[in-house]
Amino acid sequence: MPTSPWSIIAVYFVVALAVAGAIAVVPGIFTRKRPTKQKLEPYECGVPPTSGLEGRFPVRFYLVAMLFVIFDVETAAFYPWAVQLKALGMFGFLEMVTFIVVLGVGYAYVWKKGGLSWR
After folding, report:
1. Whether 103 contacts 74, CB under 8 Å
2. Which domains does the chain possess?
3. pTM over 0.85
């Protein structure tokens, strides 16, 4: 009986959703729930908390973290390109030069706007 390629993909998604649902629901059904004072306490490196959060984190902290992730992930594209450089030829080289220029312009913009300074 011939099957459509889309039916195989649909079956795959149904099975994936069933497995994910089972992984999320089954442990809650079979575990014992015995909350104690010690279990409900927040855990921070084995040191009991002495006070609450003293202040808000500055937005600059999150901005620098996001910029680090963005530039770090983009530079991870260099390794596969370097491995396949001979196979890609001049087209691959020019594409990577374009990528580096766009990355450099973005980096210069962030630097000019002061996004990388802590002050």
Report:
1. yes
2. 5-112 (1.20.58)
3. no
